Amino acid sequence: MADSNVKPSSTMIRIYPSFTEIREDVNAKSPHQIYIPQDLFHNIIEGSLNLEGVDLKSMESVLRENNVEGKEIHVFRNKELRKVKMIRSRDSLVQDLETNRFYNVDRNQIEFSEIPEETGTEVTFIFDKEGPGVLSYLMSGISWKPRYAFNIEGDNNSFQGWADIRNDTMKEYSIDKTELFGGDVSIRQPRHYRAETMMLCAKSTRAYNSDVAVESEGEVAGLYMYSIKNAYSLSPRSTFSLPFAAPTIEMKRIARMRSYFNHTNSKGQSERVYKIKSSEFLPAGTVTVREDGRVVGQSSIGDLSADEFADLNVGSDPEISYQREVKTIVHNKDMSQYEVSVTIKNKKERKIAYEFNENFGGRFEIQAISDNVKIENDHVKTEGEMDSKQQTSLKFGVRFFYRN
What kind and span of H or E run contains 60? Predict the structure, then answer.
C-alpha cells in the first residue's frame, strides 16, 4: 500500500479461508496519510480499514483520480505539442498555458514527464500523539488453499500437504510473518470487486529463501493455525507453495456400493474408496491419489479432525458390482411391502473389502432377513471381505406406510 508519510516497518498477513487480514507496523505522525490504488481498494472489505495503537480522532477517505491535477503536462493537439495545466482529471480538462484557454483532450493526446500515480483513494488519519501504530484491514484477493499428495506403495503410504498462497492482486507484498487458518470464520461479505480467479504463473524478482517453512501452531479459538515466521515476497498474480503437513495416515481400500430404494430391479458398479484416518488435523482441500507412482484419481476432504475417518472416492470399478431383485409382497393405498435380494460379485484376481448401502425415504420399516444385514437409521448396510472371483448376497424386507 502506498504511503505518503512513512513506509511500514513490518508486515504481517493472516489468511483465513474466505478473507485475509493485513497488518502493517508504522511509526505514525498525525496527519497520517496513505494512498491506495483503486484496484487494491476495491478488494478491501468495507469498514475494516483501521489505524490501531493511536487515539484516533477521525479518518477521511477521498477518491483521487490521479496525481496530475494542477500540474503541467504536454498534449499533442493540432499537430503540435502544447504545454498545458491539468485542471480536472475526470474529463481531462486542461488550461493552455499560452492562450489561458480551457479545453478537453483525449487521454491518448496526453504526454507525461513523470509516471503518474494510479487512480486511488487517499485516506487521512487524525490523532493526538505520534508513535507506533498498526495499519490493518481485511481484504479479498489473497487466499490460501491446502492440497495434498497421497502416495501409496503396497502396504505403505505417504501423505504430504501443500499450502498454496495465492495473490490475485496487482500488488507485490513483502511479508515478514504469515498466519494461515483452517476452519470456519464468518464475516460480512465485501460489496467490492472480487479479484479474478485465474491461475497465472508470475515470475518473481525476489531472492528465494530456502528457510521459509510452515509450522503448526495448534488450535486457536476453534480454528487451526499454521505460521510462517520467515520473510518472503508474494509477487502480483502469483501462487507461492510450501509444504505444511505430513501426517501419519491409516488407510483401507473399500469397494463401496450405494443404492436408493425403488420397486424395480436394478444393478450398479462399486466406487473405489480409500478410507483414511489422519494423526493430525487437516484443513479442507483436494487430494491427489497415486498408487505405485500412477495417478488413480482425485478427491477432497472437509476439515478433518485427528483420528477422524474420511473417504476418498476416486472413481468407479466395473469389476465389483451388485444386482438387486425386488419382489412385491403387498401393494395398496395404505401400505406397500417388498422383499429385496442383492447379489455382490467380485471379478478381480484378488481379495477385496466391500460395503453396500441402500437408503430409503418416507415412512418405512426395515426387516433384516439375512444375518449379514445391518439396519442403521434410514438405510441398510452390509460389509466384509470377498475372495477373488467370488460373490455374496443379502436379503431384507421393507414396508412403506402411506397413511397416519
Answer: strand 56-64
